[in-house]
Amino acid sequence: MKQVSKFRFVVSTAIALLTLVMALPAQTFASSPYEGYTRNKLGADVHSINGYMYENSIDGYNLSSGPFNAPEDIFLADDGTIYIVDTGNSRVVQLNANREVLNIIGDEEGDGKLNEPKGVFVKPDGTIFVADTKNQRIAIYDKEGKFTKQFGKPDNPLLGATFSYSPSKLLVDKRNYMFVVSDGNTQGLIQIDPNGQFKGFYGANHVGFSWSRLFIKLIATDEQKAKLSVVRPLEFSNAVQDDEGFIYTSTLGTETNQLKRLSPVGVDTLNNGDRRYGGRFDAGPFEVPSFLDIAVDKDGVITALDLQSSKVYQYDKLGNFLFVFGGLGDQNGLFVTPSSLAQSQDGTVFVVDKGRNRIDLFRTTPFADIVHDASSLFVEGRYKEAEGMWNEVLHLNANFDLAYLAIGKSLYKAENYKGAMDYFELASSREDYSNAFKEYRKEYIREHFAWICLAVITLIVILRYLMPFLWRRVSAKLADRSIVRAGLIKGGVPHDRNV
Amino acid sequence: MIATFRMMRQVLVHPIDFYNDIQEQNRIKWSQALFVVACAYIARMIAILITGYAFETREPYEISFVHEFIWIIVPWLTWTISNWGVSTILEGEGKFKEVFVGSAFAFVPYAVFIIPITLLTNILALDEGSIFGFLVNVTIYWVAWLLLLKVKIVHDFELIKVVWITLLSIAGILIIWFIGILMFGLMNQLINFIVDMFKEVNFRR
Predict the structure, then answer these.
(1) B83-125 residue pLDDT tens
(2) How many Å lie between the alpha carbon of B125 and the closest alpha carbon of chain A?
């Protein structure tokens, strides 16, 4: 009898516990197939909280336009309209903010028929510019998707006889000038005016100086030189423009400065010196990141897509590493062959996966929201307002070195130099530490001036009078002792070596 | 001990007299050289410890007391051997003991001054770092000058020959290092071979 009741008790407790566990909400934790990390000041990758989580996908199966085929580009208009370049189907699909098909562009026979387009740009008034790659032209459609005009291959002696035109990406600025990325072109972005005239190259990458090349040039014969491969500047893969008119470019085939912010005259204002973007070990040794696309939000946060590791990297306006997500694989949140990305007004990142014919959406995590808010204040120099947020960031993730630097700067601004020194030391920023230290030193000397003077005077007295006095005493004693010892050794007759 | 400190003082204030004096009979001991080098090593370690944060060029985990020791003892020993060998062939008068002790005492300026100079890094900012850099350089040039003076006085050479002998000694140092590294590699191979063979035999027993 007793045993039965005990058994019943155990079972009922177990059931109660089980129901308790089951009753907990299913989504108490969200896992992602990729691990978040951030780069600390020593250059090592350390664990961090993920900034972006996979939300859902657009694959076109439930759209009236049918599934996508190898999409290459995406454009998000400010009103939430989505333009997807469906390269394999040779069309551009226009979706509204609720992801219903608004229009399909370029699939009708006629002048407006597209042939494997690779890029799209839409002006705020709704005019659609498509880089119609296989037709070697820029096709322009109006708001309703009706073909209006086209610009063919630009004709100019500056382009050279061997120039091959294959426009893949483009952007249009406020003056209606087009900046065209042409596959395989190493001379920079092609500028085309609203009349279709070639207006020059913009922002070309340069071939740097190399000692080995100079050496080869000096000793190689003309025949050998002819056989050497020609060194060409690096090729742009994509370009976007921010609200201030800066053009951000991504460059292929280099380990440093793959991302650039070009001023209107084509000078890089993002990197001073060599800076490595992308992961160091993500793609494997000897692999160079190849950034395919870049997106910039209103705060200047740069999001870039690397094909080599299939990851998306995010940097703040100054180029500090913020977040990374994605990777190579089949799970939701990983990519097969990513080709393009874009960022919507609310911060959702759209990544086009050409290999899986769909578009993956990633939303920011609460952690990323705090970091974004804090970093937008930080890059504007409003350190004080950002301090609380950075403390919150550190509370969530103490590995985030940028937060220490930011708090240090805030304390420096608030003239708390000692505190600033501590935070700069945590951030391993020696330059800032030294600046804070200089101010702290000034303050310290001002407060303790009397004591410092006293110490200096005491030191002088000790060195000038006390030390020589002691020295004389000691050496006199030593001399006495050595005389005594010499006396003992030499049989009591000091200073007489002849004995 | 007291005599060693006297000699350290003498090499700082009257280096020429010092190098003349050490050639006297029974004036120097081997242990004095070891003591001075140990002082230089300890001074270096203390200097690394007390460097101000802004002036640290390495993270703490990148510093090894063994490596620091090697970086003082190996250049000194190889210089001694190489310089003694070269100058003995080229009619130098110095004995090995004199070269050994004389080179060691050239470290005295470093051992004495590096700690006070490094203390400065705690009150200097980075943009005033040139003061610190200048003082460190002066100390190092002082050490180099003492080494040259030692070559000149201990071996009783002309100035031109001092330069020539110094260059030859440096070449000698490089050769010693090269052979040392080579021997290290070959010994490694040999030991590995023997160990492997032992394992193999043991395995098939």
Answers:
(1) 999 999 988 888 899 999 999 999 999 999 999 999 999 999 9
(2) 5
Q: Does B54 touch chain A (CB under 8 A)?
A: yes
Containing domain of residue B161, as a range?
2-204
**Contact with chain B for residue A435, Cβ under 8 A:** yes
pLDDT at res. A30: 59
CA distance A131 to A119: 5
| Partner-chain contact B2 A435, CB within 8 Å | no
DSSP for residue A465: I
Tally the domains of chain B: 1
Tokens of B119: 């203390």
Check A441 against B123: CB less than 8 A apart: yes
CB pairs under 8 A between A and B: 22
Asked whether A183 and A170 are in contact (CB, 8 A), the reply is no
Any CB–CB contact under 8 A between B61 and chain A?
Answer: no
* Pick among A438, A467, A471 to test the B interface (most B CBs inside 10 A): A438
Q: What are the percentages of helix, strand and coil residues in chain A, rounded to 5?
A: 30, 25, 45
Q: Model's pTM, two decimal places? A: 0.76
Contact list in B for residue A440 (CB cut-off 8 A) is none
Residues of chain A whose pLDDT is less than 70? 1-7, 9-30, 281-285, 483-499
* Minimal Cβ distance to A431: which of B2, B123, B126: B126
Coil vs helix vs strand at A179? strand
CB contact under 8 Å between B126 and A425, yes or no, is: no
User: What ipTM was assigned to the predicted interfaces of this complex?
Assistant: 0.79
CA atoms within 13 A on the CB side of A488: 5
How far CA A349 is from CA of A52, A55, A246, A362, B117, in Å, comes to 8, 10, 21, 5, 55
Beta strands in A71-143 (DSSP E): 73-76, 82-86, 91-95, 101-105, 119-122, 128-132, 137-141
Amino acid A132 reads D
Cα separation values, A166 from A184, A190, A259, Å = 8, 11, 22
